[in-house]
C-alpha cells in the first residue's frame, strides 16, 4: 500500500520544465569539461571532471589529485533570486565545506569563514578565472587577520583535456 501511495505521489509532482536554463546558471559553464590540472610551474596537480547534473541545476566537480589517494567533489548551485552561488565541497578525508559567492568581473568568487581545529579564525577566498576557452584558473587564498592580508593556499591551472 505504501509503495503504491509513493508512486502516486511522485507521479502527481509538477514538472517545472528547465528551471536552471537561465543565463545566470550558464555563467559557470566555462568550467564544465574534463581537465588536466597543474600548479603554475606546470607540475601535475590532478584531474577533474566537471558536469551539470540534476536537470542542469548543479555544476558538479569530481576531483582526483595527481599522487592518488585524495579525491573530492564539489556541488555548485545558484540561487537565482539573490544571484548567490553556493559550493558544498566534500572529500575522502571527511572535509565538508560550504562557500558562498557571486560573479565579479566575469570571475566567480567564493568566500568562507571558519575556525580551524587550533582555534584560529580563518577566511578563505576562492576565485575561478575564465582565462580563455579551455583554460581556467582556480586561486585559493586564506587570511588569518580578517581579510586585511591574504596568502595563497593553492593556485591551480585547468587545461581542457583533448578529445581522444
Task: Give short descriptive properties of this protein.
164 residues, mainly beta, Lipocalin, 10-stranded antiparallel β-barrel, 10 strands, 9% helix, 55% strand
Summarize the structure.
With 164 residues, this protein is mainly beta. 9% of the residues lie in helices and 55% in strands.
Termini separation comes to: 51 Å
Q: Which secondary-structure class do the elements indicate?
A: mainly beta
CATH fold field value: Lipocalin
Helix percent reads under 10%
Query: What is the averaged pLDDT score?
Result: 91
Q: How many domain modules?
A: 1
Strand order of the main beta sheet, please?
1-2-3-4-5-6-7-8-9-10
How many E-type strands?
10
Number of helices: 2
Spatial shape: globular
* Strand proportion: over 45%
Architecture, CATH level 2?
A: Beta Barrel
Largest sheet: 10 strands, antiparallel, barrel
What is the element string, with H for helices and E for strands? HHEEEEEEEEEE
Amino acid at each position: 500500500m505504501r509503495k503504491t501511495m509513493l508512486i502516486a505521489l511522485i507521479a502527481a509532482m509538477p514538472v517545472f520544465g528547465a528551471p536552471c536554463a537561465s543565463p545566470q546558471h550558464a555563467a559557470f559553464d566555462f568550467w564544465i569539461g574534463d581537465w588536466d590540472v597543474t600548479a603554475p610551474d606546470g607540475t601535475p596537480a590532478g584531474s577533474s571532471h566537471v558536469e551539470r547534473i540534476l536537470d542542469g541545476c548543479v555544476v558538479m566537480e569530481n576531483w582526483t589529485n595527481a599522487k592518488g589517494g585524495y579525491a573530492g567533489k564539489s556541488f555548485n548551485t545558484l540561487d537565482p533570486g539573490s544571484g548567490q552561488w553556493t559550493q558544498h565541497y566534500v572529500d575522502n578525508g571527511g572535509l565538508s565545506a560550504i562557500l558562498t559567492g557571486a560573479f565579479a568581473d566575469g570571475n566567480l568568487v567564493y568566500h568562507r569563514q571558519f575556525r580551524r581545529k587550533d582555534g584560529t579564525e580563518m577566511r578563505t577566498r576562492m576565485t575561478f578565472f575564465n582565462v580563455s576557452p579551455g583554460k581556467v584558473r582556480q586561486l585559493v587564498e586564506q587570511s588569518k587577520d580578517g581579510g586585511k592580508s591574504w596568502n595563497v593556499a593553492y593556485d591551480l591551472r585547468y587545461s581542457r583535456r583533448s578529445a581522444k
